[in-house]
Amino acid sequence: MLCPGQECDEARAAAGKAWHEANLIFTTRYGTPIEPRNFQRSWETRCDRTGVRSITVHDARHTCATLLADLGVHPRVAMQVLRHARFSVTMEIYTKVSSKATRDALKRLGDSLGR
Fold it and tell me: pLDDT tens digits, residue range 49-102?
């Protein structure tokens, strides 16, 4: 489950006194940390269900950073989406620039120079 949000509020209400407030993003239906194996199994099930090739959650974060860069999303926004504390982590470690984005940037540069 993804918390915070409406889904989390509903789970909190359904769990009642069994709810454990842990200030986590992903939790069980009772607000407790998810066992890593269960999280991975759920991740793979969702990938299969949507027809998306299964990769690790960590690799999905790298993919997200790269897609945001390719979409022209401001790096500070990408940093917030990925919940990084340091800009350098987002830009130097997580974000890869695609060949297409590089070619597009060079074409725009050439066009701006009148070539």
Answer: 999 999 998 899 999 999 998 888 999 999 999 989 998 898 888 888 888 888
Alpha carbons 71 and 68: distance in angstroms, whole number: 5
Q: Contact, 33 vs 17, CB < 8 A?
A: no
| 3-state SS assignment for residue 33 | strand
> How far apart are the C-alpha atoms of 88 and 98, rounded to whole Å?
18
From the centroid of its chain, how far is CA 14? 27
Contact (Cβ atoms closer than 8 angstroms) between residue 95 and residue 65: yes
Q: Which residue has the tokens 């990084």?
A: 84
Q: Is the pTM of this model over 0.70?
A: no
